[in-house]
């Protein structure tokens, strides 16, 4: 079972438009609403793969009630922590050529008592978990050390922690030695304070973060592939993608694939890449099922291409 923690979940509403013109009335050709937030997306991908998952998240108002219902419809057990504020709603506008315009709400502000309630919900649910995946930005009211406290408490209870966050929250948590961190190329560069031009630069940055406390680093390098640096060595993997339809949630699908495959070694890296490659070929924030995966197409090697230039990040 994989337990996910999403401190700032959302309802993600997507509108498909014939075109996006400022200052006019736009009529959507289609719309949908999905459970959102990085940890919630990990749970969605785990559930789509047929594994058990529990999603811990603060939830408030009618939006929180709808989020709980939508998770249940997907076979995900929602461990919602009641809060006074309302769960946020994010909006994505999709144009015919695939261009996405996203508007992400700030979300509610959590009180110190509510922040402690989330930590307590994790403690209660973690005994049956093979992994705890803590994902996303921190909402208002939570200090940068909140993830560090969660990692420290979970390690004391004997749990393994995967952390997917950035900025001050990531920096603070490194001292508590999370078992896996999952930055993308931009977050990796931010964490070490310098630009990364090649895969070799990314490898050096990942090694630096391991020296600062992370036990292993799973770095998503976009179209260039993924890099895993852990105690047993460094591994690199790529997979062909016929056409990118949406990259929303692809990194979350990758983390789900990595943890579901054990969370260490080249086999888990191959699973991560297969899940990410499948996700970008699906519409919106749909998560891949086993039928969508193409594991034989993944090329995994311990020969990291140090001189390969990193692709320009997507706008």
TrEMBL record:
Family stated for the protein in its record: Belongs to the carbohydrate kinase PfkB family.
PANTHER family listed in its UniProt record: 1-PHOSPHOFRUCTOKINASE, 1-PHOSPHOFRUCTOKINASE-RELATED
One annotated GO molecular function: 1-phosphofructokinase activity
Taxonomy of the source species: Bacteria, Bacillati, Actinomycetota, Actinomycetes, Kitasatosporales
Chain's gene name: pfkB
Gene3D superfamilies: 3.40.1190.20
NCBIfam families: 1-PFK (TIGR03168), pfkB (TIGR03828)
Entry annotated with the keyword Protein biosynthesis: no
Domain of life: Bacteria
Species whose genome carries this gene: Streptomyces rubiginosohelvolus
Entry EC no(s): 2.7.1.56
Protein's name in the database: 1-phosphofructokinase
